[in-house]
Design goal:
This protein is mainly alpha-helical. The protein folds into 3 domains: 4-86 and 252-306, 3-Layer(aba) Sandwich (Rossmann fold), CATH 3.40.50; 90-250, Alpha-Beta Complex (Glutamyl-tRNA Synthetase, domain 3); 415-501, Arc Repressor Mutant, subunit A, CATH 1.10.10.350. The protein has a 3-stranded parallel beta sheet. Strands 4-5-8 form a 3-stranded antiparallel beta sheet. Strand 1, helix 1 and strand 2 (36-39) form a beta-alpha-beta unit. The chain contains 20 helices and 14 strands. It binds one RNA strand of 78 nucleotides through helix 4, strand 7, helix 6, strand 14 and helix 12.
Length: 506
RNA sequence: GGUCCGUUCGUCUAGCUGGCCCAGGACGCUAGGUUUUCAUCCUAGAAAUCAGGGGUUCGAAUCCCCUACGGACUACCA
């Protein structure tokens, strides 16, 4: 039987990196086994629907290079893939459960239950649960007469369907990451399966859909572990236990400082994105930063994310998506949550950047030049500029500031360098050097270097004392690629012009 | 409060069938080297009494128990 897995986010906002990692692991698992990866949208809570969230999810996965085989927007044999569009398919199962005595109608209003909850909390400090101990004190088809229930339903009174949690039974499930997990049903509550608005809750919808979509492995976040026994019970009561999917609950992604689940707020509070793409809240207009806009390469982002909770067991750190598909295994996923480490993300990005083709970097640089309204002479010229700086950039956004001098004469000059290297006699040296270069062939950087060295020798000057000021007037910067490579690349005219017209007035 | 899950360098982690671990790698950090500068690259170093305690054993990070701490869940949210 072929493997089928799904990533099932709810469109309540942007997908955060924990979600991206869940999607990634699902994807890697499916692809390694030649299986199918499905994107299903869990929008059973119409109250939390956020416009644009679904589109964001699709775009984010696409940017990451995580492609699904079936799902919303592309369809497939088990569609529709939006739960709101499958609305009609859940109710019969809920009613079947009632008929079989595994569920019941409940007429308590949300307000009544809320009241009960606060009361209970005052008295016992514990949490009120709608369960085997309390359900007979509440208004439902177990306490009301058959007649009464029928009239209420006929009158169209609001109701929910709750699971009738069996008493004192051990439910065990095997988690692919954690092993055997056993829970006694008396600690579980009578969860709502079907809401008064005609929609199922996650618990029912997820079980019905996973079954109908022939999902073989449910790989999801650890926050679902406590309700997994409930899901097992549902499979059992629905008669599907023999074809129930395998479960794997992934460890959480934690805040870099302190503990706790990484949340949407943490990112901009701590100065790093928690979202793959920038997101603008449609209601508040609040903007949250994204990895794409912050200058990360998708492959670096994915490599980094894959290692948050998984490792190959070898000393290899660099894995492209194909490597990950090859090597990934659920058995090697950690049990404990992982804290997010921005420094390591930056290191991965720098690594991927410096190994990228010049043509790709050139393309990115041209985009930035265009956006800044800076003219560039030729594609090859830009590509080579990118080549010269690729080992000293960490983020894509560093491309432009690091290579600006290839396109514009500097107007500002690094203050640190002026302070350290600019002496009263330096201006004269630069002028002498300019005369030397005037009669030098710029077609090879070697010749420039030779001419420079010869000059130093005749004047008995040290390299550092002269090269630094030269770099300063030509590029405005205190560091950068090989100076003679720069001069060769920008050409004789620009070099000599800059050596004559610089203004260090800052 | 209850249930469940977890706990190895600052961080990500190796270690899963006990001895090769007075714990290895990576990021970061420190120091050297290469380089005309910055970055890259190379080398070296500091950094975990394996949460704590008790067992089992000739021997435990690795097996068992207890404790502590952390987290998740505990909605007609997912």
């Amino acid at each position: 039987m072929s493997v089928r897995v799904r990533f099932a986010p709810s469109p309540t906002g942007p997908l955060h990196i924990g979600g991206v990692r869940t999607a990634l692991y699902n994807y890697l698992f499916a692809k390694q086994l030649g299986g199918t990866f499905i994107l299903r949208i869990e929008d059973t809570d119409q109250g939390r629907f956020v416009p644009g969230a679904e589109q964001y999810i699709i775009e984010a996965l696409s940017w990451c290079g995580i492609y699904f085989d079936e799902g919303v927007s592309i369809g497939g044999p088990y569609g529709p893939y939006r739960q709101s569009e499958r609305k009609e398919s859940y109710k019969p199962f809920a009613e079947q459960l009632v008929k079989d005595g595994h569920a019941y109608y409940a007429f308590d209003t949300a307000e009544e239950l809320e009241l009960r909850r606060t009361e209970e909390h005052k008295i016992s400090k514990g949490m009120f649960q709608y369960d085997g101990k309390t359900r007979l004190t509440l208004r439902n088809s177990l306490t009301l007469s058959e007649e009464e229930v029928r009239t209420r339903l006929e009158k169209g009174e609001q109701y929910v369907i709750r699971i009738k949690m069996p008493e004192n039974q051990e439910v065990r499930l095997t988690d692919l990451i954690r092993g055997e997990v056993v829970v006694n049903t008396t600690t579980l509550d009578d969860k709502v399966l079907f809401k008064s608005d005609g929609m199922p809750t996650y618990h029912l919808a997820n079980v019905v859909d996973d079954h109908e979509m022939k999902i073989t492995h449910v790989i999801r976040g650890e926050e679902w572990l406590p309700s997994a026994p409930l899901h097992v019970l549902l499979y059992r009561f629905l008669g599907w236990e023999n074809v129930m999917p395998a479960f794997a609950h992934l460890p959480l992604l934690l805040k870099p400082d302190g503990n706790g689940k990484l949340s949407k707020r943490d990112g901009d509070r701590l100065g790093f994105p928690v979202f793959p793409l920038r997101w603008t809240d449609p209601v508040t207009g609040e903007v949250s930063s994204g990895y794409r806009e912050a200058g990360y390469l998708p492959d670096a982002f994915i490599n980094f994310l894959a290692f948050l909770g998984w490792n190959p067991g070898t000393e290899q750190e660099i894995f492209d998506i194909e490597d990950l598909i090859q090597s990934f295994s659920l058995e090697r996923v950690n049990k404990a949550g992982a804290k997010f480490d921005l420094e390591k993300a930056r290191w991965f990005n720098q690594h991927y950047l410096k190994t990228k083709d010049d043509i790709i970097l050139g393309l990115l640089l041209r985009k930035q030049l265009d956006e800044a309204g800076i003219a560039w002479p030729a594609i090859e010229y830009v590509d080579h500029a990118a080549h010269l700086i690729k080992e000293r950039i960490v983020l894509i956004g560093d491309l432009l500031p690091q290579s600006l001098f290839f396109f514009l004469d500097p107007v500002t000059f690094d203050a640190e360098t002026i302070k350290k290297r600019w002496k009263p006699e330096t201006a004269e040296i630069i002028e002498n050097l300019r005369l030397v270069f005037e009669s030098t062939d710029f077609s090879h950087s070697d010749e420039l270097e030779t001419a420079f060295k010869n000059y130093l020798e005749t004047k008995n000057l040290g390299t550092a004392a002269v090269l630094s000021p030269l770099r300063l007037v030509v590029t405005g910067m205190g560091g950068g690629p090989g100076m003679f490579d720069i001069m060769h690349h920008i050409g004789k005219d620009a070099t000599l012009r800059r050596m004559k017209h610089y203004k260090l007035d800052n």
